[in-house]
Amino acid sequence: MARRQASLFAKDLDLLEPFWKEPVERFHLPNGLTVILKPDRSAALASVQVWVRTGSQHEGEHLGAGLSHYLEHMMFKGTAKRSGREISATIQGHGGDINAYTSFDRTVYYADLPARHLEVALDVLADAIFASTLPADEVTRERDVILREIDMTRDDPENRFWEALFASGFREHPYRHPIIGHREAFSAVTREDLLRYYRSRYVPNNTVLVIVGDIDAATLREQIGRHFGTVPRRPLAPVYIPDEPAPLARREQHVYEDVELTRGALSWHIPGLGHPDAPALDLLGTVLGGGDSSVLWQAVREKSRLVHSIDAQAWNPGNGGLFCISFTCEPEKRAAAVAAIEKVLRSHERRGFKPAQLGKARRQLIVSEINTRRTMSGQASRLGAAEVVVGDLEYGRTYFERLAALRPADLARIVRTYLQPARAMALSQNPKRVAAAAAVESRAARTLPDFEQIRLENGARLVLQPDSRLPNLHLRLLCLGGPKDEDPSRRGASALLATMLTKDTRKRSAAEVAHCIEEVGGVFRGFAGNNSLGLAAEVLPPDAGRALELIGDAILRPAFRRTTFEKERAAQLAELRQDADDVVTFARKRIRQLYFDGHPLAIDAHGDEAGVRALVPDELSDLHRRLWSAPNVVFAVAGDFQPRSLVPKLKAFLSRLPKGAGQKGAGRSWNPPAGRNLVERRQREQAVIFQAHPAPRLMDRDFYVGEVADELFSGMASRLFERVREEKGLAYFVRSCRVTGLDASMFQFYAGTAPAHAEEVLKEIDLEIARVREGGVEDAEIERCRARLQAARQQGMQTNGARAFQAGLAVLFGLPVNDWKKYDARVEAVTREDLARFASKYLGAENRIRLTVTP
């Protein structure tokens, strides 16, 4: 069958052979203009086309303004030689038609007329294209015309749909902008902008003249030289057009408008016309969606009855483009239609295509090629595209020779290479009446099940949240620990321990551990903070056993090999030295030391150089034994897993932990020092100021008031930022932050400023505290804080890892496992009076410590 189809196609190619043998002359005028001539004496007609190599992607600083399309309109509005009306009247008076179009990469002007009047077309087109005056009154008048055209485009749902598809499919390439331009950008275009663009791009060395028809080449060359050759060559600056990066994940966009039917599309990035796979992509588009007998039409429309129409095509005019499958359907069938399309693609990716399908599609492409050559205008268009878009007049022959060589397996490869679901860009335009239902569905999707808590006999706790929306699984093992559990002379032990637990075990070397997790695309890391430390692993669901094995070996069989220990200790020391290079980080650590003087939180979990340098492997081994006992451990798992199969394995691991006593959550009572003002000198150009105050501890009732207060003093919309940075220009940045512990916490302000402004910035901070203390916070400010905090929380809790971490910490600190779900309500409950009380209780001048690091 395949040989028979190849033989039939070879005969079909014979039909095109005469086209390849037809003489085509190509030459350049001295001014750089390219000329392509093709005689065709089948009729006493001619087509004259002027292809200017400039389109919407070449508009530079005015990208998205539609300059190319604007100029297309203006080219027929008058020259020094003719009025606008005379241009079209002259061509029509000689029995011809004149028109133009603009695309992303070219603007084409053409006149079709009797061959005996061909010189008239040359005269008119050369004059209009290279000598337009762009009359000011016509610029204004045509702006109004194009604005109406833009409005008409926006009124057409089909146009809106395709503009949205290109905007979604291209993030960097100029294809993302509509050729006609965005209304606001177009409205701002001036006549001077048009003139600059016209003079820079409408030059002969950026132009191709194509003539097909009943011509005398010798006579025509003289006429071309007379009308087009006198325009001087001018400099032509290159225009940078960025490559479009391939999507790294699937994109989805669904809009709801005043339409009756749903329009949908799946698209994928593909290479441009010059790529060897371009013919195969065209053939695939024809096989899948070329007509009522195509694969998708039959499968999705006729058999499944999911769509009203469906087609497929490869659009790739330049260095890249889109393969697009588009359809219309009833709104409720959209998801099923997309699933059916993807099912068809996967099926043909596996079992390939039939030779007869390729044969039919090839015949369709040959017929299409023949049909484009039925007219002089069609032939000229093919030659212009070959020259301007492809850069090769012989491309047609090469294209069909490649088509002839394609086999069913080649199309399966194309599907496998380019049309993967993970790289698809899905877009739909839907009736507004289904928007409410979609919103309800979206809210339902956001409602996740509660975490379930299981307490084992040895005191270990397991918290679980199955969620199969995404094939992802996060496992996080936590224990109480951190600075309070370290020897004061060995600060940094917690962070180094967390790192070492992800390295050597008795079963695997550090390199083997890394290979084991990275082989399946997973992540395995340690973490350490002010109050906890532990391990986290994230994998695909089939690799849950592997992740659990690595965690189990890390906790039950760590090796603490000296060579690995020395490498990781050196890396931690290097990070500490690097911190000292940054003046803000240096000041942040210094204020922490001053404020938490005598408390473990004076140094963060990464420690100090002296403490880390003094550590030895046996000390980490001892810290490991003290911390990793069953009552001190919580194992949180969230993501795509089946509790029935995974929970027994999790319990088996936790049951092997020793039954030692749990750690105490809070340390000794402590009161911060107060009333200290320090200045330290560093070799820097600018000053950094910090002001520290007491703050609610992690479990205190006022913790959530502190959340709102921190947001109130921070961000570009805060009153503090507006006054200090925007109004008075005193600082580069100013905001607040917190260090939170179970038995001690700190609220701090900080700013970067010029040394001469340091005192004034500190005064402004105190004025802002006074405003809050006196109840001067406005309702709008509190609403902004609530909205920001709640949105940030929602964004931060999207991942399985974030939810597992928060639920695990809650149980570790003695809170209900789903306490994290109460965040919004607690923030919502904070009032102006709460903030005033907070400022009075915690942010008084008597409790503060100030640090200025200055040159």
Question: Nutshell version of this structure?
Answer:
By secondary structure, the protein is of the alpha+beta class. Helix content is 46%, strand content 18%. Helix 2 (67-74) packs across helix 8.
Commentary on this structure:
- The chain is of the alpha+beta class.
- The protein has a six-stranded mixed sheet with strand order 1-2-6-3-5-4, with helices on both faces. Strands 12-13-17-14-16-15 form a six-stranded mixed sheet, with helices on both faces. Strands 7-11-8-10-9 form a five-stranded mixed sheet, sandwiched between helices.
- The longest helix is centred in the N-terminal third of the chain and has 20 residues, at 2-21.
- It is elongated and about 100 Å long.
- It starts with a helix and ends with a strand.
- Residues 439-446 have low confidence and may be disordered.
Our Rg estimate from Cα atoms comes to: 36 Å
Number of DSSP helical runs: 32
Total number of β-strand segments? Answer: 22
Distance between the termini: 84 Å
Mean pLDDT: 89
- List the uncertain runs: 439-446
Helical percent range? 40-55%
**Physical arrangement of strands within the biggest beta sheet:** 1-2-6-3-5-4
As an assembly, this protein is single chain
Structural shape: elongated
Strand portion, in percent?
Answer: 15-25%
User: Main sheet, how many strands, which sense, barrel?
Assistant: 6 strands, mixed
SS-based structural class? Answer: alpha+beta
